[in-house]
Amino acid sequence: MAEALESKGILVDGERVDVSQEVVDKLVGVFAESSDDSDSDDNDYKSFGAPNQMNLSPPSSFSIAEALPLDQAKCIEEIRELPSNGKVFLDITTMLVYISDVCNGGCEFEFTEKILLEQAAAERRGSALKTILPNMTDRLLVTCQSAMDDYWGIVNVMAGEEETRRARELSDRITVVADTMSARFASLGASGQIKERSKVIFGTADCLKCEILTSNEGFVRAAAAQDIHIPAILHQPRALSEQKKVQGSKHSQ
């Protein structure tokens, strides 16, 4: 796993242990997707598809009752009926930003890894949380099972003590639904930016008629190129950083 992460520009320190290929694929995939468009600028907020233009009517071929247990189907139907400003879908990248040490006071530390140095500098210029937090206030927080499983796979491998504490607190606030990809997302053609996992995550948000918080701008643009416009609230990506900060070394102004 260390070699796979290092190939993406992430320096891995400490003892190296065997990790399943499935976990490696998930970790590398998340970092690759969230970083593809992150160097373009330091904009605080980008939104694709205003709420009154969401165009998220249920596909004619979709039937929740056919695919899910009764309790899950009822939960999804109830979420679908909520107004768009009463709910928001969190993808993996958003959950990682929320708990990252660099977004919670850790941006003042020095790091040896280039990606963390860059993200800490970006965070000092403007916090990624100032896009996320207002869009989580007074809304039902929702994600799907695949996103939550991958999130905890990353947390369990890479998070520090405080990041893990925040991860648990955030998980307790989120309603997790079964993966339920809408028909129009199932029809998306594969490409360098269109990965199956992302189709499931964004497709479940689509099924729930939710705006989605994400830093995966590459997927949003690739879907738009196939005429599927996602009501996405984009923010900058942040990696988990608590275990990587250089203790006793603060950034000099």
Describe what you observe in this structure.
- Residues 5-11 and 38-65 have low confidence and may be disordered.
- The chain has twelve helices and eight strands.
- Helix content is 46%, strand content 12%.
- The strands form two sheets. A six-stranded mixed beta sheet has the order 1-7-6-2-4-5, sandwiched between helices. Strands 3-8 form a two-stranded antiparallel sheet.
- The two termini are 35 Å apart.
Number of helices: 12
Q: How are the strands of the largest sheet arranged? A: 1-7-6-2-4-5
Main β sheet profile:
6 strands, mixed
SSE order in H/E notation? HHEHHEHEHHEHHEHHEHEE
Q: What's the total number of strands?
A: 8
Tell me, briefly, the overall form: globular
Structural class: alpha/beta
Radius of gyration, CA atoms, in whole angstroms: 18 Å
Low-confidence stretches: 5-11, 38-65
Distance between the termini: 35 Å
Strand content: 5-15%
Helix content: 40-55%
Integer average pLDDT:
81
Summarize the entry for a quick read.
With 253 residues, the protein is α/β, with parallel strands linked by helices.
List the helices and strands and how they pair.
Elements: H1 2-6, H2 21-35, E1 46-48, H3 64-67, H4 70-81, E2 87-90, H5 92-99, E3 109-111, H6 114-125, H7 129-136, E4 140-144, H8 145-158, H9 161-173, E5 174-177, H10 183-186, H11 196-207, E6 212-214, H12 217-225, E7 232-234, E8 245-250
Parallel strand pairs: 2-4, 2-6, 4-5, 6-7
Antiparallel strand pairs: 1-7, 3-8
Helix pairs in contact: 5-8, 5-9, 8-9
